[in-house]
Amino acid sequence: MSKKNAGLKENESGLKNDGSEKSNFNLNVALTPTKIVEFLNRYIVGQDKAKRAVAVALRNRERRRRLSPEIAREISPKNILMVGPTGVGKTEIARRLSSLVQAPFVKVEATKFTEVGYVGRDVESIVRDLVDAAVAMVRKQMLADVQEPAAERAEQRLVDALLPRSDKKFSMPDIMRVFGGVPEGEAEGEPEEVRKNEATRERLLTMLREGRLEDREVEIEIAENAAVGIPLFGASGMDSMGINLSEILGGMLPKKSKKRRMKISEARRALTAEEAEKLIDTEALSQEALDKAQEDGIVFLDELDKIVAKGGGGSSPDVSREGVQRDLLPIVEGSVVQTRYGPVKTDHVLFIAAGAFSGVKPSDLIPELQGRFPIRVELQPLSWENLQQILIEPENSLLKQYTALIGTEGVELRFTDDATREIAVLASKMNAEMEDIGARRLHTMLEQLLEEVSFEVCDDSRKVIEIDVGFVQNRLNCLVENRDIRRYLL
Ligand SMILES: Nc1ncnc2c1ncn2[C@@H]1O[C@H](COP(=O)(O)OP(=O)(O)OP(=O)(O)O)[C@@H](O)[C@H]1O
Ligand SMILES: [Mg+2]
Asked: Which ligand is nearest to the CA of 382?
């Protein structure tokens, strides 16, 4: 296969991204609740109720899409509140979900709004972030859709760069580079020259398409990223109104372009990207993104319990927490938020909230907010059996990560069954005796367990290092038994 084909492959793989995005529309159709749960099962152990709840909530959006506008308008999303101890998979479910669904998705910590300097309307930034996510999504899709024409235009510009249309003074050096020399005494008499020029262009184009010039150098003029690197004014003030000054001004200022010398293969990529940007209809992009955000948007509100006022006292931090709840309310209930792409209605945005609610209860939330989260799911504390599964089973589980890391040194790390069992039992014991931090305990324990191996593996002559129960006990038992040490290390 010629190099051109290699070039094409690259394009195709670029297209594949959106190709898969395109099929993602169908993907949403194919995402039945069972499929969603199946997907989540690959990463998260247990927590079946929570998985089912989010699966149904997602499916309901697809169902709503199939209805006539009259009834669809009436159906508001059934927001979910996930309650469960720390480290049992709440955030993890949201994280995995976001990689699965083709919907604009943002994750925010509710505590972000209790920080010093908080002003009421800041909560609207959630919606603006959601729209930004939608814009990024739609743009990616649109860019993919115009890859072909963009590549064609890029090719024309490459030919122009190699052989400027009329200006022979500039054409000579590049042309010579390509053909390795130019016959003397050519280019007399206008029409003749033009004809020859055209013929040369054709030849160049063919060579380009066949990928025969990929490694040649060419000088192209390429737009510099105008908006980058000019932070005009303090971003925060203007940004909170959804206005980006450098973007506005950037649009008014003439786009700076810069001459750069690079390989044709590289230039092709840069020019295609630039042409693709030009081909995008920004108006349509904004509109589609706004629609997507308000129809399909998902907001994951983490740490909701942290904005619950403790005990009915009137101390000021608690007041501000309740203030955050009040500010969140209109967004969750459905209101219109101005963004720089236009107004967004939040009525149909799906909210999934999560919180440990250890010192407080969901019923301590202000009643209006409670009412907006009708679906409550409890996540279960993790048993030692769960912990062992978490070590081993999920895709890219902790053990798989360590094994892969050590594997890069040419050493195979092997864990025996009773070793993983021992780790899980010890972790569970630590959770019971100290603070229950769920699966997070496994992270520190494994780090302690493998510290020595990690350090010494490069000098180790063994091809296989087996971690058995004895090894685990050796390394961890003394830590577990010693109250002072374990407080710091595990
Ligand atoms: N059920 C589970 N299956 C697989 N991994 C899990 C599970 N629960 C927790 N983990 C792992 O433990 C870590 C912490 O989990 P996560 O962030 O979901 O906790 P959380 O429930 O959101 O806790 P918090 O209330 O403190 O925010 C993650 O690295 C995650 O991979
Ligand atoms: Mg969390």
From this structure: 1
